[in-house]
Amino acid sequence: MSKKCSLLRVKWNSDEIYLTVGPYAMNRSVINKMGNPISTNEKMEWIFAYSNGSLVAFCAMECTKTSIYIKNYYAIDGDQDWFFFFIENIKEFFEVSFRTKLFCYVKTNQLEKTLKLGFKPTTPGKNWHRLIIEKQS
Q: Beta 44-51 vs 6-11: how paired, if at all?
């Protein structure tokens, strides 16, 4: 997939997060669409996608000693392709990192396409599914 945009990656406590994500974190309709509240912590990095100077989507990844978790994804226009754009971007980062597991949580309507990217289900659910890619040791 080709998305024409510029990416900005920031640490969990950057002013950019509060200025950019804050309005969405306080918007009940955004929280309902995401299925969970937006949060950040010291293990997280945020990725913002901008097109023509405007925010089009954002995603957070939480990096632990052994794993990366894709979290807090939102596309301003609702385009689900942004989710897969972030997954592919984070997957590239994961492949060159020392971490051995990459997790993501997807809605049922995103499951088939995510499985094609190499993820395997760990915890199937009714509406949400936890998926993983593990590096071979």
A: antiparallel
